[in-house]
Design brief:
It is a single chain. The chain is an alpha+beta fold and 621 residues long. The protein contains 16 helices and 32 strands. Strands 21-22-23-24-26-27-30-31-32 form a nine-stranded antiparallel beta sheet, with helices on one face. Strands 4, 5, 6, 7, 9, 10, 11 and 12 form an eight-stranded mixed beta sheet that branches. Helix 7 runs parallel beside helix 12 and helix 8 packs parallel to helix 10. The protein starts with a helix and ends in a 6-residue tail after the last strand. 45% of the residues are buried.
Length: 621
């Protein structure tokens, strides 16, 4: 009975060549067949009288081939069909498929990618890593730091070395993650009871990801209710898994099994009867990059498709031994979750798994399907923004991140200071960007100001002195840098003129002060007083004039930006205030006037140069 409690029927285990005393043609032994897939072909079975381990006891389960073991292996599959007794389907049509990807982020340049793929660790599995776009997460600096992955597997030091291989699979993808080994099997064919495994899970504390490269070869669609599942495994096991998900916000990553079946194994069915596991569970099937299809040994997602994902199943270890199986597809996904957690440690499990599924590259039939689930794990897509980008004005106000059109003076100040800010994707994840990369410059439009001329000013003159105010768009902005339209400038000016024959020499100097205002939806929190100066000198005849001057130029003033810089460890948005010096280099404006026609050219040091022509006259009635 004790032997039965340790889950009799052996392994669904790694495609490792194990030199044992068993005969090479002993493929009638299902345990041997699953541990030697390179020698045996999978065939449909309709075994009766097979023992099924249930927590603290064992029963006869007619018509169900029951195995609990390590998911792994590689084999050709042939024949088979589901029957009334829920026999596992070993045969199915596996056709090549294309990985369908969307936009690949342009934030990583070719030099960064070349550096990421230049290591021996990457090149050992380059084709597999290319399929999950690992180079992008490496180039973005993510290595899984801050995450603990608990590996529930064989006892370390056993001949099979299965646990060592699983941990070796994690290391190149998430080298900074902490890996904690937990024994649930003394060897690949000698498992603890479900009750004991439940204790191991319950005793695991502080882990964020629970990697399980083992399963039972009962089809997932066999399970209908929680009570049925608990009866087949054990209440202690069910409670332990539930507690880890709900109390520790853990994510279970489970290998689908290697029966070449249309349904994943029994343990992959847990979220179907334990709804609290939704968002805390990822079922993993294995991809064969040589055939561009689901590996022939791998179970398909089947009824688990809504929480199932595909990952490469053939991995070359640091010892240069190559192993295949869903045993090794699962830790690839566990490592990927650690990478996402490092970048955004404040994300709850439900959002991490949703990101994993949404960003997977589509395989097979369009959308989620019974073979590949959500598709191929994609670390490039998972580590770039998803959905519309927004920025935080404050803790209660956000707005879409679009390119803001701003005046040359604002653009110059921002580009000189070069501040960074955070923006957020649909999951609230923070990403960094330079403010200057999200602005475009619009010219002030001096031609329109000149055409309005004195009509746009309210003024009082005392001899050569002039006092007044006027409005202009010198500090205008839209979007996240929106200001309240035109700025009112109060000014004092002097006008001088001298007659030289029939020609008049004239000059004007002006000093102004303004206090622009930003809107409540702007990251501009405030302006100080903005001090401006302008000067103009020229010649004027009876019907003509020529002049050169400097339009309003900011000589002193500060703009304050209140920018989100990211999130803290607990997810709160962090901010920083930047004081932007607004002093600018003056533009040079050249004008020529004849009768009612005026032409001008503005040499702008920041925006585009401007040329204008207008006609202005008055009619008397």
């Amino acid at each position: 009975m004790k032997l039965l409690n340790k889950i009799l029927a052996g392994i669904i285990c790694c495609a490792m060549v194990i030199n044992t005393a068993r005969a090479a043609d002993d493929c009638s032994n299902i345990a041997y067949k699953q541990s030697h897939p390179e020698r045996c072909k999978y065939v449909a079975s309709n075994n009766t009288g097979t023992y099924l381990a249930i927590g603290g006891g064992a029963v006869i389960a007619g018509g169900i081939a029951a195995l609990v073991g390590l998911a792994g292996g590689g084999a050709a599959s042939s024949g088979g069909a589901d029957d009334a007794n829920n026999t596992i389907i070993y045969g199915r049509n596996v056709t090549p498929t294309t990985i369908r990807r969307s936009y690949v982020g342009g934030d990583i340049n070719t030099t960064q990618l070349a550096t990421a793929i230049s290591t021996n660790e990457y090149n050992r599995n380059a084709s597999q890593y290319d399929e999950i776009q690992l180079a992008y997460s490496i180039a973005r600096g993510y290595r899984g730091a801050g995450s603990k992955i608990a590996v529930f597997d064989t006892q370390l030091g056993t001949f099979a070395q299965h646990a060592e291989y699983v941990m070796d699979t994690i290391a190149p993808i998430a080298p900074a993650a902490e890996i904690e080994h937990r024994t649930v099997a003394y060897n690949t064919d000698d498992f603890m009871s479900y009750n004991e495994i439940g204790n191991v899970i319950a005793e695991t504390r502080g882990a964020h990801i629970y990697n399980n490269s083992w399963n039972a070869n009962i089809a997932a669609d066999t399970i209908r209710t929680r009570a049925q599942f608990a009866n087949m495994t054990g209440q202690n096991f069910v409670d332990a898994v539930s507690g880890a998900a709900t109390e520790q916000d853990a994510i279970f990553v489970w290998a689908a099994g290697n029966d070449g079946a249309a349904q994943s194994g029994l343990l992959s069915a847990m979220p179907r009867v334990m709804p609290e596991l939704n968002g805390h569970f990822v079922n993993v099937v294995a991809w064969d990059n040589e055939t561009s299809a689901l590996a022939d040994y791998s179970n398909a997602c089947g009824v688990t498709q809504d929480y199932c994902i595909t990952a490469p199943g053939t991995i070359t270890m640091s010892s240069n031994r190559t192993r295949s199986g869903t045993s090794f597809a699962a830790p690839v996904v566990s490592a990927a979750i650690a990478v996402i957690r490092e970048a955004w440690e404040y994300l709850p499990a439900e959002q991490i798994t949703e990101i994993l599924f949404e960003t997977a590259a589509d395989l097979g039939d369009a959308g989620v399907d019974e073979i590949y689930g959500h598709g191929m794990l994609d670390l490039e897509a998972a580590t770039r923004p998803v959905g519309a980008a927004t920025i935080a004005i404050n803790d209660t106000t956000t707005q879409p991140l679009h390119v803001a059109r701003v005046s040359a003076q604002i653009a110059h100040g921002i580009k000189s200071a070069n501040p960074t800010m955070a923006f957020f994707d649909k999951y609230g994840r923070d990403f960094k960007t330079n403010v200057a990369d999200n602005i475009s410059v619009h010219n002030r439009g001096l031609g329109f100001e000149r055409m309005r001329g004195d009509d746009a000013r309210t003024k009082i003159t005392f001899g050569d002195m002039e006092f007044g105010f006027y409005r202009n768009d010198m500090l205008s902005g839209t979007g996240f840098l929106q200001t309240n339209g035109d700025t009112t400038t109060t000014y004092i000016a002097t006008n001088k003129s001298y007659k030289i024959g029939n020609v008049e020499l004239f000059g004007r100097t002006q000093l102004g002060i303004a206090r622009p205002q930003a809107t409540t939806e702007s990251v501009i929190s405030q302006f100080s007083n903005i001090y401006t100066a302008s000067a103009n000198i020229g010649l004027r005849g009876e019907n003509w004039s020529l002049s050169v001057g400097t339009p309003d130029t900011i000589v002193n003033g500060v703009m304050q930006l209140h920018l989100a810089t990211g999130r803290t460890h607990d997810g709160a948005i962090a901010y920083r205030d930047y004081n932007i010096d607004m002093a600018t280099t003056p533009s040079i404006e050249y004008t020529a006037n004849y009768r009612f026609l005026t032409a001008g050219f503005v040499d702008n040091p920041y925006g585009e140069n401007e040329f204008y022509v207008f006609a202005k006259t008055k009619f008397a009635f």
